């Protein structure tokens, strides 16, 4: 007799696993700079104030760098407070409230603590709640790296509005007697709001790095080494010198004038524009001679406005491009909506650039 129960026990029925369907964000086609704000420290430091300590002259500094003065932050002008001030102006220019920001991306190399991120503190200070926030450390290319991140977040639908901040207090890291650095680096903050747009306002980023040239710009010792020197003092050794920024200016200059033409042309090609389409050029404010060399190499037309914020502001690293954009617009050299090539470059050595439509300012 057929035993149905036995048959049922002997037949193995294999379940076919169906993977769960994972939802995706709703992407948008275009992103743009919606508003720009900056913060410039109160204290203006002319060359005359520092020349004696570095055995130099005002003429030498201007000839080598183009700098006449720079801003150094006072004790109450912190990474966070300068960022908040610049961000508030960027939000006002964009016509947005803090609660409409979905993410904060902050670029800096001079936050003197490892955590929490400055971006998270700034978000809270601005009145944001449960907002994504993180820091980027890419030296003087930091703002353009952060801008590339922000544009991708918006296009991918991960965030509708992103606050991008470049901020530095490099005066904290300067050896006042260092002839190569003491006259160059400065403080300040700049911020932009990135959001969706009907037309493209931020071209694809062209970026890269060369870690073989880390010695060109770097902190001269890590903190593990410094702490070991402190312990040696306690055992009777000599007092240690704290870590400082050091720079080989000639190495940076050679790299900049030989390599950055390719970076600029890559950014233009990715965006589908030529130098003849540009209204403005906003390079990192590293050195006026580097800017001049790039202008010649690229063959920029005479009617392209070039940012020269370094003259009165110095080199503010990750803050330099938004601050230079603001100065160029405020001075009337360029206007919102103009097509501009941005190029950040420096410690790493790293670079990043993109073509943008200039934003409105506060």
Could you please describe the fold and organization of this structure?
With about 350 residues, the chain is of the alpha/beta class. Helices cover about 30% and strands about 20% of the residues. It has ten helices and 14 strands. The strands form four sheets. The chain has a five-stranded mixed sheet, with helices on both faces. α3 packs across α4 and α7 crosses α8. It is globular, with a radius of gyration of 25 Å. About 45% of the residues are buried. The mean pLDDT is about 95.
Q: Assign the structural class, choosing from mainly alpha, mainly beta, alpha/beta, alpha+beta, or little secondary structure.
A: alpha/beta
* Alpha plus pi helix count: 10
- CATH homology-level superfamily of the largest domain: Thiolase/Chalcone synthase
User: Number of folding domains?
Assistant: 2
| CATH top level class name of the largest domain | Alpha Beta
- Shape verdict: globular
Mean pLDDT: 93
Uncertain segments: none
What is the second-level CATH architecture of the largest domain? 3-Layer(aba) Sandwich
| Radius of gyration, taken over Cα atoms and rounded to an integer in Å | 25 Å
Strand content: 15-25%
Largest sheet: 5 strands, mixed
CATH topology-level fold name of the largest domain: Peroxisomal Thiolase, Chain A, domain 1
Number of strands: 14
Helix share, percent: 25-40%
Termini separation (Å)? Answer: 92 Å
**Strands of the biggest beta sheet: in what spatial order?**
1-7-6-4-5
């Amino acid at each position: 007799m057929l035993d149905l129960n036995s048959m049922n026990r002997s037949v193995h029925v294999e379940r076919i696993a169906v993977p769960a369907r994972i939802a995706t964000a709703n992407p948008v086609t275009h992103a743009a700079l919606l508003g720009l704000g900056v913060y410039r420290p109160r204290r203006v430091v002319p060359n005359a104030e520092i020349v004696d300590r570095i055995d130099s002259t005002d003429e030498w500094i201007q000839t080598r760098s183009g700098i006449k003065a720079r801003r150094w932050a006072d004790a109450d002008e912190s990474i966070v407070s300068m960022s908040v001030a610049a961000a508030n102006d960027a939000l006002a220019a964009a016509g947005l409230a803090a609660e409409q920001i979905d993410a904060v991306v902050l670029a800096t190399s001079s936050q003197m603590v490892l955590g929490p991120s400055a971006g998270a503190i700034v978000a809270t200070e601005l009145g944001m709640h449960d907002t994504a926030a993180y820091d980027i450390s890419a030296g003087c290319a930091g703002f353009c790296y952060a801008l590339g991140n922000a544009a991708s977040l918006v296009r991918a639908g991960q965030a509708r509005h992103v606050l991008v901040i470049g901020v530095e207090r490099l005066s904290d890291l300067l050896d006042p007697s260092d002839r190569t650095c003491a006259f160059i680096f400065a403080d300040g903050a700049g911020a932009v709001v990135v959001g969706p747009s009907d037309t493209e306002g931020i071209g694809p980023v062209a970026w890269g790095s060369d870690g073989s040239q880390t010695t060109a710009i770097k902190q001269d010792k890590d903190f593990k080494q410094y702490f070991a020197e402190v312990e040696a003092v306690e055992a009777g050794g000599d007092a240690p010198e704290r870590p400082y920024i050091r720079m080989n200016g000639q190495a940076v200059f050679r790299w900049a004038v030989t390599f950055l033409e390719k970076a600029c042309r890559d950014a233009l090609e990715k965006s589908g524009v030529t130098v003849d389409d540009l209204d403005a050029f906003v390079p990192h404010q590293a050195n006026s001679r580097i800017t001049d060399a790039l202008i010649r190499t690229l063959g920029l037309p005479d009617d392209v406005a070039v940012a020269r914020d370094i003259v009165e502001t110095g080199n503010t690293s990750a803050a330099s491009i938004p601050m230079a954009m603001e100065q160029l617009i405020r001075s009337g050299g360029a206007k919102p909506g103009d097509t501009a090539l941005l190029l950040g470059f420096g410690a790493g050595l790293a670079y990043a650039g993109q073509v943008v439509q200039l934003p409105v300012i506060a």
